[in-house]
């Protein structure tokens, strides 16, 4: 991840200039280039596929949009772009920007967010965890398929890890899953998924 501009952008400027470009998000007015790699996008696609199949199987009124931004209400110059997001379709009518832009403002619309870790692991494990908890998003996955997060987050020795965060009160409880282990998801209790299924070959 790189910081591509010293100019501070507003929410409106970011949406106008970079809203359709999946490389970028905005943190406190700073443009962040998330530099997605081929393997990163392959892992993201696999995750979306597993989630989508489970939504269809369980007949829920949920969707997984191709491109979606999150605008935390308390942060005027922050626009997050999760790698995957699950939305409650029945609540989209309460979203003030949705009809014109794929932007979510209400955490209650979001069932799950997923971040696939790359060079921006500090944001995924710290800043975004805080923002998603403040929004009241019930579940957050951090998919660190390279095992590059800090030792404080994934332990020592470092290894590929999926961290499933469940909102309890106003913060997340965390459970980690390593290679060979099936994840446990409160949002998708019937989901059969292991980190092994996601690792690029």
From TrEMBL:
Alphabetical list of InterPro entries matching this protein: Nuclease_put_TT1808, Restrct_endonuc-II-like, Uma2
Every Putative restriction endonuclease domain range: 12-195
Top-rank lineage group of the source organism: Bacteria
Protein name: Putative restriction endonuclease domain-containing protein
């Amino acid at each position: 991840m790189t910081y591509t501009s010293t100019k501070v952008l507003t929410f409106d400027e970011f949406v106008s200039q970079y809203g359709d470009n999946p490389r970028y998000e905005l943190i406190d007015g700073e443009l962040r280039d998330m530099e997605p790699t081929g393997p990163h996008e392959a892992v993201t696609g696999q995750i979306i596929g597993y989630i989508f199949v489970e939504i269809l199987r369980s007949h829920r009124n949920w969707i997984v949009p191709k491109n979606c931004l999150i605008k935390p209400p308390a942060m005027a110059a922050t626009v997050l772009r999760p790698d995957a997001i699950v939305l409650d379709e029945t609540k989209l009518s309460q979203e003030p920007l949705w009809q014109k832009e794929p932007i979510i403002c209400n955490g209650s619309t979001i069932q799950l967010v997923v971040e696939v870790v790359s060079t921006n692991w500090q944001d995924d494990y710290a800043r975004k965890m805080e923002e998603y908890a403040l929004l009241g998003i019930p579940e957050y996955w951090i998919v660190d398929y390279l095992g590059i997060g800090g030792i404080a987050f994934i332990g020592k020795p470092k290894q590929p890890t999926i961290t499933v965060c469940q909102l309890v009160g106003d913060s997340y409880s965390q459970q980690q899953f390593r290679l060979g282990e099936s994840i446990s998801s409160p949002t998708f209790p019937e989901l059969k998924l292991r980190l092994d299924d996601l690792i690029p070959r």
